[in-house]
Amino acid sequence: MEQFYQVLVWVGVFLYWLIIAGVTMRVVFQRRIVGVSLAWLMIIFIIPIGGVFAYLLFGELNLGKKRAERARDMFHPFAEWFQRLNDCPSHQPQLMSQNARPISDLCEKRLGVPGLVGNTLSLQDSPQQILHSIIDDIQQAKESIHLEFYIWHAGGLADAVGVALIQAAKRGLSVRLLLDSAGSSRFFRSHWPKLMRQAGIEITQALAVSPLRMFFRRLDLRQHRKIIVIDNTIAYTGSMNLVDPAFFKTNADVGQWVDVMVRLTGPTVPLLNCIQAWDWEVETGQRFLPELPACGIDTSPDTIDTVQVIPSGPGMPDEIIHQVLLLSIYQAQKSVVITTPYFVPSEHLQHALKGAAERGLSVHIVVPDKNDSTMVEWASRSFFGELLQAGVKIHRFHGGLLHTKSVVIDDTHCLIGTVNLDMRSLWLNFEVTLAVDSLEFTQQLSWLQQEYIKNSTSIDNNEWTKRPMLNKLGERFFYMFSPLL
Q1: Where does the PLD phosphodiesterase domain start and stop, copy by copy (predicted)?
Q2: Lowest mean pLDDT among 234-238, 283-287, 339-343
Q3: Mean per-residue pLDDT, 465-478
């Protein structure tokens, strides 16, 4: 009997080694960022069984069999739609500035999506302004309203948006609402879905969370885009979820969330509608390709505002927004100003920011003083020392949880959208960013960034080096997990 137990132990040890070796080889052969691979190997070896279990759940970009099949079937018709944008008069590469052209060329080569001129953009920076503007446009809609959000949280003016949508559906408009299953879990447990469906609104959960399918699809892969398209002529996108900040996470002790949205008209609107249609079809199998942009545009100097739409996530080219961000920083000649709620940069992004400061550019990063994610906040601090030494100015915002995701280059062009500067947003989630080449719009965004900085405390490098050793140890601990945050 003793020999039997010895054999059983050796068999168990061998099987354990086989599992560890197999998962280790799987991690190595994935050929991703070295830091990501090392972080997973550390977890697997330090927490053997739990590490393997965690890797099977969250280690690979697995969209699920059904969604992956749909995405493959959708690729050709959507690629054709994008290709037809090149024949639209809004595609005027000769009118693009030297800042917009390289980004447009990169996105056209990798995504098949060109930059389009002839747009009008309005920056909205208060929740009341944003929500009232959305309500007004919904009330004036004539044909269709398509919405896509990570979070819908009931309360305040968010309820007024819900009422406006119900009234629009009762007027006979086509209303479709796509919400992330995890981010909007409280909404789906509320009375709102039933009311909306009774009125004729189509509601779909994106990436539904199901413990029964945890090994068949990555559970932390989220639909993080924020898009509204009305009548295929008006669009909104930006950092704000469908929430009224006065009623959202009021007990989190971080203050109200501070966001912006961009209201657009022009040829970029159908393109955002197409991205929303892509996400809808991935979830439902229903195809609603929008009409292409109207042919006639005004090409006077005051209207040549180039907008490059950059979607990312499964089914899109790897790290495309990350590439555009790096390209923008390396092209900068005077200044780079970034606002982000979650700052856990890749090695390439960290080097780009340090290099920009070291070659004499004015580089500023604005982050919230208090964050709703403890792990991200501590991991973020681990990057401050090197950046401060290189000359980067880091500001901690005191006016609430700064949720605006923006990058302004040389006060002449900018990036704005849904992407946080962390690995999750840049590599995993469904996101969308606008690369905007408009001097007037960029100066408005730059002014807003400067208002954020005025309401912030700048970190002094000498004082930062004197922080307690316990803080430094905590930062180094969470730094080890930063590639996975």
Answers
A1: 219-246, 398-425
A2: 283-287
A3: 76
Question: CA–CA distance from 125 to each of 358, 450, 465 (Å)?
Answer: 32, 13, 35
Distance, CA of 324 to CA of 328 (rounded, Å): 6
**What does DSSP say about strands 401-402 and 257-258: parallel, antiparallel, or unpaired?**
parallel
pLDDT for the residue 32: 60
- Counts of helices then strands in the chain (DSSP H, E): 18, 17
* Rounded CA separation 453/339 (Å): 10
pLDDT of 73: 73
In sequence order, the β-bridge partners of residue 343 are: 421
In this structure, the number of other CB atoms found within 10 A of the CB of residue 208 comes to 14
Q: List the domain boundaries for the chain.
A: 2-58, 65-91+119-296, 320-484
C-alpha span between 241 and 184 (Å, rounded): 10
CATH architecture of the domain formed by 65-91+119-296: 2-Layer Sandwich (3.30)
Give me the active site residues, please.
Answer: 224, 226, 231, 403, 405, 410
Number of residues that make up the chain: 485
Helical residues (DSSP H) of 210-316, grouped into ranges: 268-284
Question: Which residues are 18's β-sheet partners?
Answer: none
Same topology for domains 65-91+119-296 and 320-484, yes or no?
Answer: yes
d(CA 300, CA 455): 38
pLDDT, one tens digit per residue, over 10-65 is 666 666 666 666 666 666 666 666 566 666 666 666 666 666 666 665 555 665 56
Report which residue type is found at 129. Answer: Q
Beta-strand pair 335-339/362-368: parallel
Give me the CATH code for the 320-484 domain, please.
3.30.870.10
